[in-house]
Design a protein that fits this description.
The complex is a heterotrimer.
Chain A: H1 2-10, H2 14-30, H3 37-62, H4 70-84, H5 89-116, H6 121-139, H7 149-156, E1 158-159, E2 163-164, H8 165-180, H9 184-194, H10 196-201, H11 206-232, H12 243-253, H13 265-284, H14 289-319
Antiparallel strand pairs in A: 1-2
Helix pairs in contact in A: 2-13, 3-8, 3-11, 3-12, 3-13, 4-5, 4-6, 4-11, 5-6, 5-11, 7-11, 9-11, 12-13, 12-14
Chain B: E1 4-13, E2 16-26, E3 31-36, H1 42-49, E4 57-62, E5 65-67, H2 72-77, E6 80-83, H3 95-99, H4 114-127, H5 144-157, E7 162-166, H6 174-189, E8 193-197, H7 201-207, E9 210-215, E10 218-224, H8 230-238, E11 257-266, E12 270-278, E13 282-286, H9 293-300, E14 307-312, E15 315-317, H10 322-327, E16 330-333, H11 337-341, H12 348-354, E17 361-362, E18 365-366, H13 368-381, H14 398-410, E19 416-420, H15 428-443, E20 447-451, H16 455-461, E21 464-469, E22 472-478, H17 484-491, E23 504-505
Parallel strand pairs in B: 3-8, 3-9, 6-7, 7-8, 13-20, 13-21, 16-19, 19-20
Antiparallel strand pairs in B: 1-2, 1-4, 4-5, 9-10, 11-12, 11-14, 14-15, 17-18, 21-22, 22-23
Helix pairs in contact in B: 12-13, 12-14, 13-14
Chain C: H1 2-7, H2 9-28, H3 35-60, H4 68-81, H5 90-113, H6 119-138, H7 148-155, E1 157-158, E2 161-162, H8 163-181, H9 183-193, H10 195-200, H11 205-231, H12 240-252, H13 264-283, H14 288-305
Antiparallel strand pairs in C: 1-2
Classes of the chains: A mainly alpha, B alpha/beta, C mainly alpha.
Chain lengths: 321, 506, 315
């Protein structure tokens, strides 16, 4: 029992969980009405797209890479599904399927080019970011598109009238992650991120593991854009704009290191909630929307700074300075 | 046919033919020493065997059957295990997770069975009498010798048929190295085949039953150990006579004190060090691995913060960073030329002047002539063999790369040379050149601080040896008392036999 | 001679690409090769090229500067709004702008070099901060008019050559001298190849990186001022395109995005190439989406083509 306790406090997501609790308490104090299931439903629905995008990014960060293309993928699937989804089961399913395929395909393409030609991840995903972003504009030059009500209502519904489907999805994601972390592939993910060369010497298929990570990132980004179609009820070629910054911030707050090998999905999910709650509190405090961009940027830098500085301190301690 | 054969193996890389129709054979129970200079093809041969590289030609047979190795995993499954020079451990995973990495048992739900894992690890520890390592600790928190031991355990756990030990003892203390050699003997008794790569000829003589020598990508000799003596082996490796491995020891020590350290401490690794380096002196640093030697060198080269007083040529200095140290006339020849010593993607010329940019500037700008002069001087002084100064350092042989590093660090015109394990992983021919160089600089009146994990080297090269233990000076050995036995004695806290000419123990 | 050509192979190729591209297109699109259009191309390339100066320095260290977009914007807005379109305030507004952009660069450089923030995240974050700050301060209002002197530099010619190009040539000479004839240049390349080796050679790695980002801030500031002059006014978001264009110019020009090698003269060719490509796109009246895709494709292709047969060294 004691060993488990130590394990929890040393877990990388502890910071985001603590922050979450603090902010939750703060929110309840400022807005007593928020202590309700209804509020939790609202927040889950508001956070689901970021959570999906950030989770995908977390996988890539874990293997020591980075994926800038998620912004482009989100814009693309959002625009595509908003424009082409018609009010028939067939259309909804096939368009959704195509979106997922697009995201997966781009993710795998990223992973392939990065590894086959040994190019830095940021440059490859920087390029695919623009290629996808450009495609989004070609698909939908201006904000618009009208997805069918069946689609939007389903994804924003409360199951049994009580629990929002987004909240359910989040819980399912947590459960899946807790299982995944203990599978071979899950452990290999961390191994590759920590030391790819060593992983390869042990017979691990590093190429495959990295392809998996980038593929998942593309797939989840596609899902984020697709879900946005339901929530916003429209499409936009610039939908993905701020997602990269926030995905990184959520992951880093959640304890995932940008250098790979450490972190996880639980932290990211809480990190995403933390970001949303901070934004809410700012709105509540009457801060104009112009300043929100500024805060977003500062938050990103601050989150990463705290992470890198604490790594430096840890190293210094080991050196015994 | 022998139990294990590699036949007609060739492997080329752009610009380099690493293996040229090479052969290798061994029978069960044999411990084979694989000798050869760096670049002779040893590591490529091993990488082919372990599935890291696919050979251009050739086949591998075990017990008469052809092996089809198409990757690291398939090699491991077919019974080939290696203990690598660069550790194959993942710092962020636990000891348990590392020991069976890639070979986990899974439960029906798809998750890895940690219960099975813990059991297997405990069995492994018991079988090989391993204590003091917490199986649930992250590998990144262990010391280097501990990690090397894990590396060895990992290989042993595979129950393979063919074991490869590539410089496996380099990071181990004498006691741990003996532990390993005993295990190897045991494996041999069990009928395994062991390929043992080491630059330590005395170790090889201790346990190997035969020697295979590689030169220029091909096997050139396959002798039983009784027939091989050191000189002959060296000759086979180099393809020529080199006569006398170590230069004759002379003393050039002058009175002038170049470096004086008083009460120097650094974190908890170095404590209250009082020592001096004189001009013309080759001062050795001995002791068990990891006792503060690294920290001592780092402090002198400005890589670590410290407390205490350091004087260079009588002047108190504050060695805050490498630049300061270089300015004060100190230079470091590091152990890892790839990561620390030379910029592999740049030319010889760019490397050589890198640390001495002040010497090639005239006013604000770089003078091509001054640059050329210094480059020519260093290339000549160290006989760096290359097409032109524009050749990229990464394409040079290991020995030549090391020479470029020497050229770079010595272009700063230092008075004090810090040489940290510079012969590690270096072939015999270059080693000899290096010892000659060390002697030459001593003769010129420079002060040299010399550290090597090879005690044989310390004994044959140094005028005086300071033995370090737990961050403190355990003893100083002068001239006549220098011997491996004495270094060891002082390292473990005993006094020196012969108690001669001023040697001290603390 | 042969050795020299081999060494500068990449450089020569990047110029050949620009020239061939230009010749081919001028055959297809009438007026493309007219003297006036050439001037326009040169002027456009000049601004991209100036931003790319800083980008080149930063990329050589192995990093990237994604904050140039809003640095340029701030500089443009400041030069129009703080001078109220008049020349007399320029004497202290311009130094102020340059000082400010250098400070932005120093902040980037400090966090990256001393606090070990990854360059992408730091500069992207900085970009967002600058955007947020500027938009909040101006409350989203559009910028003003550029002062006459700045407009003159941005729009007029001397002896038939645009003033912008003259400025660019002067800066190119200075930059090339720094990179190849001065101590800092050597230190920069050393750091880009291996920080550890550079450190062991006595180079002050952190200061070198800090300086590179400061230079990037400075050149973005200069570009911002000049762009305001070229366009005649300023508006929010005017720096966005330069971000990708400067990176594309650097990539096309042969500077390895992995760091450690590069030549600003190559970036110059790259600036021309990207300008020509953009010119083609607008001449063909292709939608904005194609332009965006073009950035991505161009960068990807350049990087693929220049995959160095270098020796892999872990940093």
């Amino acid at each position: 029992m004691k060993r488990d306790k130590i394990k929890i406090t040393k877990s990388p997501s502890i910071v985001s969980i603590i922050l979450f609790v603090i902010l939750a308490v703060l929110t309840v104090v400022l807005q007593p009405s928020s202590a309700s299931l209804h509020w939790v439903n609202l927040k889950s629905s508001a956070a689901i797209t970021l959570i999906l995008a950030a989770l995908g990014e977390t996988f890539v960060l874990l293997i020591g890479g980075i994926d800038l293309s998620i912004a482009g993928v989100i814009s693309l699937t959002n625009s595509f599904s908003a424009l082409y989804m018609l009010d028939s089961g067939m259309s909804i399913i096939s368009v959704s399927f195509i979106c997922m395929l697009m995201g997966l395909g781009i993710g795998l393409l990223n992973g392939f080019i990065i590894q086959k030609f040994n190019i830095q991840p940021f440059i490859v995903t920087f390029s695919t970011w623009f290629i996808c972003g450009g495609l989004a504009y070609l698909v939908l030059p201006k904000d618009g598109g009208k997805p069918p009500a069946t689609f939007t209502k389903t994804l924003t519904a409360n199951i049994g009238g009580k629990v929002n489907i987004a909240l359910v999805i989040i819980i399912i994601l947590i459960i899946i992650w807790l299982w995944f972390k203990k599978t071979k592939l899950g452990i290999y993910l961390y191994a590759v991120g920590s030391n790819a060369k060593a992983a390869s010497l042990n017979g691990i298929n590093v190429f495959g593991v990295k392809m998996f990570a980038y593929g998942i990132s593309g797939l989840l980004a596609a899902l984020a854009g697709w879900y946005r179609t339901a929530i916003a009820g429209a499409g936009s070629p610039t939908a993905g704009e701020s997602f990269f910054n926030q995905a990184i911030a959520a992951s880093v707050i959640g304890g995932t290191l940008l250098t790979g090998g450490k972190g996880g999905a639980i932290g990211t999910i809480f990190g995403a909630f933390v970001l949303k709650m901070i934004a809410d509190i700012l709105v509540f405090a009457g801060v104009s929307s112009y300043w929100s961009t500024l805060f977003q940027g500062i938050l990103l830098i601050a989150a990463v700074l705290v992470s890198t500085i604490s790594e430096i301190i840890k190293e210094r301690k080991e050196m015994g300075a | 046919m022998a139990d294990f054969e590699m036949k007609n193996i060739s492997k080329s890389f752009p610009g380099v033919k690493a293996l040229d129709h090479a052969d290798f054979q061994a029978n069960k129970g044999e411990i084979v020493a694989l000798l050869g200079e760096n670049g002779a093809g040893k590591s490529t041969l091993i990488k082919v065997l372990c599935g890291e590289h696919k050979p251009d030609t050739g086949e591998i047979f075990f017990e008469g059957k052809k092996l089809n190795i198409h990757g690291t995993r398939s090699a491991i499954i077919q019974g080939i295990t290696a203990v690598y020079q660069e550790l194959s451990l993942v710092a962020d995973l636990t000891v348990e997770e590392n020991l069976f990495l890639g070979f986990y048992d899974t439960k029906k739900t798809g998750v890895v069975s940690y219960e099975e894992l813990t059991k297997k690890v405990q069995e492994l520890f018991n079988r090989y009498h391993v204590t003091g390592i917490n199986p649930k600790a992250k590998v990144g928190t262990l010391t280097l010798p501990q990690r090397q031991m894990l590396e060895i355990l990992k290989a042993l756990s595979k129950n393979g048929e063919i074991f490869i030990f590539d410089e496996a003892t380099s990071a181990l203390s004498d006691r741990q190295a003996n532990w390993l050699l005993n295990i190897i003997r045991q494996l041999s008794k069990e009928g395994k085949i062991i390929i043992f790569i080491s630059h330590r000829l005395d170790e090889i003589k201790k346990i190997c039953s035969k020697v295979i020598v590689y030169r220029a990508g091909k096997d050139v000799a396959d002798l039983p150990m009784e027939e091989a003596d050191s000189d002959q082996l060296v000759k086979l490796m180099l393809g020529r006579e080199i006569g006398g491995y170590y230069p004759e020891k002379e003393t050039f020590t002058k009175d002038e004190i170049l470096v004086s350290m008083k009460n120097v401490s650094s974190s908890h690794k170095l404590k209250e060090i009082d020592m001096e380096i004189r001009a013309g002196e080759i001062l050795g640093i001995g002791g068990l691995a990891g006792q503060g030697q690294n920290e001592l060198f780092s402090v002198l080269f400005g890589l670590r913060p410290y407390k205490g007083e350091i004087k260079i040529k009588g002047k108190p200095v504050n060695l805050k960073n490498p630049r300061r140290s270089i300015r004060e006339g100190i230079t470091l020849i590091p152990e890892d030329r790839g990561l620390q010593g030379a910029s592999l993607n740049q030319s010889i010329r760019e490397n050589i002047v890198m640390a001495a940019l002040n010497r090639i500037t005239k006013g604000l700008f770089i003078s091509d002539k001054k640059e050329k002069d210094i480059v020519d001087e260093m290339v000549h002084a160290f006989s760096i063999k290359a097409e032109s100064p524009e050749t990229l350092v990464g394409t040079l042989s290991g020995g030549n790369q090391q020479k470029v590093v020497l050229g770079k660090q010595l272009a700063t015109n230092p008075d004090i040379l810090l040489m940290f394990d510079i012969t590690r992983g270096v072939d015999v021919g270059t080693k000899k050149d290096m010892f000659e160089t060390v002697k030459k600089y001593a003769k010129e009146g420079k002060g040299i601080l010399f550290y090597s994990t090879d005690m044989e080297e310390l004994v044959n090269v140094c005028n005086r040896i300071i033995v370090v233990n737990e961050g403190r000076i355990a003893g100083i050995l002068y001239e006549n008392d220098i011997s491996r036995a004495n270094i060891l004695r002082v390292s473990v806290g005993e006094s020196v036999t012969g108690g001669g000419a001023g040697s001290e123990t603390r | 001679m042969k050795v020299k050509i081999q060494r500068h192979q990449r450089l020569i190729t990047s110029y050949l690409v620009a020239i061939v591209l230009f010749l081919l297109i001028s055959l297809v699109i009438p007026g493309f090769a007219s003297l006036n259009h050439i001037r326009i191309i040169c002027a456009e390339a000049a601004i991209i090229g100036i931003v790319a100066i800083g980008q080149t320095f930063v990329v050589i260290t192995g990093g990237i500067d994604l904050s140039v977009a809003w640095t340029i914007c701030i500089a443009s807005i400041m030069v129009t709004n703080m001078t109220a379109g008049l020349d007399d305030k320029l004497i202290y507004v311009v130094p102020l702008i340059l000082l400010l952009t250098i400070i932005f660069g120093l902040i980037n450089g400090f966090c990256i070099a001393y606090l070990r923030m990854p360059p992408i995240v730091m500069t992207l974050g900085m970009n967002t901060v600058l955007q947020g700050g500027l938009v909040a301060i101006t409350s989203g209002a559009p910028g003003g008019e550029a002062p006459e002197l700045i407009k003159k530099i941005g729009q007029s010619n001397i002896f038939g050559i645009p003033w912008l190009v003259v400025v660019w040539i002067v800066l190119t000479i200075i930059v090339t001298v720094i990179l190849f004839k001065m101590k800092y240049g050597r230190e920069l390349f050393a750091v880009g190849n291996s920080e550890t080796v550079a450190k062991y050679s006595g180079v002050n790695v952190k200061k070198v990186i800090l300086t590179a980002y400061a230079i990037s801030g400075l050149t973005a500031g200069i570009a911002g001022i000049l762009q305001a002059g070229k366009v005649g006014s300023s508006y929010l978001g005017m720096g966005d395109n330069f971000q990708f264009q400067s990176i594309a110019a650097v990539a096309i020009g042969g500077t390895s995005l992995m760091g450690g090698s590069g030549n600003y003269l190559g970036t110059v060719a790259g600036a021309f190439t990207i300008t020509i490509i953009l010119g083609i796109l607008s001449a063909l009246n292709l939608p904005y989406g194609v332009q965006k895709m073009a950035y991505g494709i161009v960068v990807l292709i350049s990087v693929l083509l220049s995959v160095r047969r270098g020796i892999k060294v872990k940093k």
